[in-house]
Amino acid sequence: MKKSYKLDEIDCANCARELQDGLAKLDGVEKVSVNFMTQKLTLEADDDRFDEVLQRVVDYTADVEPDCEILL
Predict the structure, then answer these.
(1) CA 62, CA 14: separation in Å to the nearest integer?
(2) Considering the entire predicted model, what is its pTM?
(3) CA 34, CA 36: separation in Å to the nearest integer?
(4) Are strands 40-45 and 69-71 parallel, antiparallel or unpaired?
(5) How many domains does the chain have?
(6) Tens digits of per-residue pLDDT, 32-71?
């Protein structure tokens, strides 16, 4: 499954790249993209585990970029 989400308050392109690199290493993430210009996160994960993987992505983002929120 592939879904896109709006990001609120991603500070810079470097922060977006670092966030993307970290998210790509999470268990269950098949593909992830963080676009600073459009303030968008696109996540691809297995349909059966998507909600679980999404929660990991949300938690990781809150830890690494506390000002950034994924608008679900």
Answers:
(1) 17
(2) 0.95
(3) 6
(4) unpaired
(5) 1
(6) 999 999 999 999 999 999 999 999 999 999 999 999 999 9
CA triple 60-19-69, angle to 5 deg: 60
Helices (H), the chain: 13-24, 50-64
What's the CATH code of the domain at 28?
A: 3.30.70.100
Residues present in the chain in total: 72
| DSSP secondary structure of 31-57 | EEEEETTTTEEEEEE-GGGHHHHHHHH
pLDDT number for residue 43: 98
Domain interval for residue 40: 2-71
Order of all β-strands in the sheet with 69-71: 29-35, 40-45, 2-8, 69-71
Q: What token pair was written down for 31?
A: 């593909």
Contact call for residues 30 and 46 (beta carbons, < 8 A)? yes
Taking residues 3-17, report their average pLDDT: 96
